[in-house]
Amino acid sequence: MKIIIAEKTSPAAIKMFRDEAGWNVITAEQLNGDLAAQLADADALVVRSAVDVNSKLLESANQLRVIGRAGVGVDNIDVAAATKKGVVVMNTPGANAVAVAEHTFGLMLSLARHLTRADSTTRAGKWEKKSLQGTELRGKTLGIIGFGRVGIEVAKRARAFDMRVMANDPFVSQEVAHDFGVTLANLEEVYASADYLSLHLGLTPQTEGMINQSAIGKMKKGVRIINCARGELINDAALVEALKSGQVGGAAIDVFTTEPPKDSALFACENVVATPHIAGSTNEAQEAVGTQIAQQVIDFLKSGVARNAVK
Ligand code: MLT
Fold it and tell me: Which end of the chain is less enclosed by CB atoms within 10 A, N or C?
C-alpha cells in the first residue's frame, strides 16, 4: 500500500502506518511539493486543513481508495468529486472537541476580561487598571449554535462557570439537551437571549453567511460572538459594522474565510480578539486526531470497514 501523509501529523500516527509490513509511507517532508505526482499510485491520502483536495488534484489519483481528514471540517476536500471516483472520505469527529471547547473558553474569558489589551498595555508600561474592568461569565446566557461533540463540551464547561446555556441544533432532541442542562431553542430565541454566542457547526450551503446583518439585528445589544468553527459562517462586513455600532460588544475569531487572512477589516476593530485557527491545536488533540485517522484508514484498507465516512 502507498500512503501519503500530506501535512504535519503526529509521529505516533506515522509510526502506525510504517508498522504495517510492506507499506510505503510518504510524509509531508518527503513530498517536495509534488503531491499530484505522488498521488498517482497512492492508496490513501491523509490531510489536515491546509491541503486543498480539489477535483483537479483528485484527477491524478488513479488508485486512491480513501482520504483521511485528521480533524473534523472537510471543507478543504471536494467530497462530491471524491465520492464520484469511489474514494471514501473519513474524518475524526470528537477527537479535538475538548481542545476546541477549552479554546472557546479562553476566548470568552479574553473578551470578558480584556486579556489581550491588558497584556499589550501592561507590557507597554501602562497601568490601565480602571479602563480594563471586566464582567463575569457567571449568570450570563451562552447561546451555542450547533450542539454536536464540541458544543456539548462547551456546554459542560459553561455550567462550571454558572452560565445559563441555550442551544440550537435541528438534529438534537430536547432529551439530549436536557441531559446536559441545556435549553434547546430556535435560532431567534437564542439570538434574543444570548450574552455570548458561540458557533460550533459545520460549513454547508445552508450555514454559510448565517451570521449576517439580519441575524445580528435580532441579537441582544452588546452580544459577544465567538467563532471557532469556520470563518464563512459569518458575514465579516456585517460583523464589522455591528462591532462599530456597539450592536456586537466583542468578537473572538479563530477561523477566517481566507486563511491566513489578508488585511481583514476585523483587525481594525479594538473589540476583536483573533487567533490563527488554533482551537483544535493542542498536543493531546493532534495526537488523538492523528492516531484515530491512522487507525480508521488502516482498518479500511485492510478490512473495508469505513468508520466516520463523510458524504
Ligand atoms: C477541525 O475541523 O477539526 C478544526 O477546525 C481543526 C482543524 O481544522 O484541524
Answer: C
DSSP state of 93: T
Q: Are residues 241 and 154 in the same domain?
A: yes
Mutation probe of ligand 1 site: the residue of 72, 153, 308 with most atoms within 8 A of C-beta: 72
Residue 9: which domain range? 2-93+283-303
Distance 301 CA to ligand 1 centre (A): 24
Number of domains within the chain: 2
261 and 298 co-located in one domain = no
SS3 letters across 101-123: HHHHHHHHHHHHHCHHHHHHHHH
Q: What is the pLDDT of residue 33?
A: 87
By annotation, the residues acting in catalysis are 230, 259, 277
The stretches in the chain having pLDDT less than 50 are none
Chain centroid to Cα 200, Å, comes to 7
Residue 145 lies in a domain: yes
Q: Is the CB of 99 under 6 A from ligand 1?
A: no
Residues 183 and 248 in one domain: yes
Cα–Cα distance, 157 to 124 (Å, whole number): 33
Q: Can you tell me the distance from the alpha carbon of 266 to that of 254, in angstroms, rounded to the nearest whole number?
A: 12
